[in-house]
Amino acid sequence: MKNQRKSSTGIMRKYYQLILIVICLISVVTLLIYRHEYYRLRYVLEVLNFFGKPGLSEIEFCGPGFNATMLSEILKNSSMEIRETPPLFQQIDENFYAYTSFLKSYQKYNKLTPSDVHNIDTIVIGKAQSEPSFRCNIWFDNNNKPKAGKFSYRAITEPVGEFRVYVFQCSLNKNLGKPKGVSFYVNDYNINPIHAPINRLIAVNTKRKVRESSSVKFVNNIVPAICVIPNQVPMVTRDNFIEFLVFHHMMGFDYFTIYDSMISEDIIRRLNLIPSDITQWKIQFFPLNFPFVFAKSYEVVRSAIELDCLFRHFRLDKEDLEKVSHVVTLSWDEFLVPRVYSNVKAIIDDLDPTRKVHSFEVKPLLFCLNQNDDDNTNIAYPDIMKKTHYYIIPNQQIKSLHMRNLDAMKTFDDILNLNSSRIIPLETLGAHKYTECRDPKTYQPESYNEEQMQGFKHRMEGAMLSFAESLNSNKMYRLYRAGQIWEKTPSDEKDL
Q1: pTM for the full model?
Q2: Domain 68-204 has CATH 2.60.40
Q3: Which whole number is the average pLDDT over 60-64?
Q4: Any stretches that span the bilayer, and where are they (predicted)?
């Protein structure tokens, strides 16, 4: 009996041990799951705390009939960092597309003339061979019925292919309150003007207080800005995106206005909410829709964006707020590279100490990304630092860039009269364009091969290489390369 009792006791003890082991295993697994979920939750809370709540997944293409006011409200209610009325192409008729509209000097100055109290300028792209013949309406606060205005227009650019840039003007010589929108419609009484798309107005001033000049030169009163547009092939990688921003910040640019719908909301949110002591820049994003064939209309759309950029930066007086003094429009593959100077601000300060030059012209240089890397460059350098020869390729047309001086423009209308520019010598500053070189006359997705490249004239230019160490040691760039801004995975193709 005693043996049986001992045997049953031993079996029970083993069952107890087994149960305890199972419970222990379950507890360990539960603890691991809890720990994993805890860290996931903490990560999400940290992301929400740092990056804000989720909003729109991305800015989709908006057709020409999409209402700009509607888009503005959508963006204001999302997490997108868009604080102003975004520009948007809207169709007026089959030949003309309105872009942005600017209300000039509404009750800003006490001495307004009785005529043209309401004066609205609208940037328009249209067919060069079509004569604009429209009527216009001005819309007011708390009034669902518009007032007819006086229509006039002005051609701003020469024809580029079949298109050109215009400024449509709509004016009213009675002060009926603050206007909110403008619409254009065909001069045909059989068409109901109520159905015409409405452009929301952006308030601007007709004058700009210029800083007082001094016999002593100060670089600090130069506040340059870049308006960024897509490349002709409208895609940009994360590497190119960060390199562009960091490099030009090194060159003295703190203000960036980006017109590009191919950049995701995640990129926008991350960059705008990184602590300012790291970036020290201010970025404004606007969506960009193309109601035309992109390749055929690229130059004319670029001209319209440049005009929109100038209008926006002119719109506040210096006495109201520190605003931009110089503006240049660049695509993601274009870089302003000094030769002797350390940055672009120093060049402006030296060439124009009294800030009287309205416009600077910068000569472009073509750097082919399909050229061989310079043997003397570090393998860790970005691709733009490894390409040290610029090429002269037949039939490859690259237009000069222009840096506009808003401080030299006393009135808003001076923006429309920039007919001459002072050329900055290539020995001082160059506009480097880094792109895959292809035959511009044929549809050829492949780049030139090594044998073809050797047949083109080229010249050594190592100005960009001199900034390689400064770029690599930049705090923002090092954070990006270390994967602290975006997590990098083996399958990450780094597209925005």
Answers
A1: 0.78
A2: yes
A3: 36
A4: 15-34
